């Protein structure tokens, strides 16, 4: 019975993440457990999709490391996610930007969303 209570506590403890969507650049600090050691690994990249709802909601982050595209899927409800840092908002027109997989070099860049400071103050 204690195991069931533990699982419900882990799923119920929602961490607050900054608001982000597809095209945004974020860093996910993820806890890696190796034997009896625990460390935090940062995975910085662009969000290419957000999928699902409720406790099964996930997001996919893509980065290019040494010329090889690396994608990682993170569940929102994972207790191993230490924190999520938001870097910049991207300007994309789609919710799922899988076309990034085929692009290389300058074409693979995502334009940054620009905010008008005058409108924000008014």
Enumerate the strands of the largest sheet in spatial order, edge to edge or round the barrel.
4-3-2-1-5
* Secondary-structure content class: mainly beta
Beginning-to-end CA distance, first to last residue = 56 Å
Give the % helix. 10-25%
User: Beta fraction of the residues?
Assistant: 35-45%
Mean pLDDT: 86
Q: Overall 3D geometry?
A: globular
Give the beta-strand count.
5
Annotation field: number of helices:
2
Biggest sheet statistics: 5 strands, antiparallel
| Computed CA radius of gyration, to the nearest angstrom | 17 Å
- What low-confidence regions span 5 or more consecutive residues with pLDDT below 50? none
The ordered string of helix (H) and strand (E) elements is HEEEEEH
Give the secondary structure arrangement, pairings included.
Blueprint: H1 2-12, E1 25-34, E2 37-51, E3 58-65, E4 68-75, E5 81-88, H2 117-121
Antiparallel strand pairs: 1-2, 1-5, 2-3, 3-4
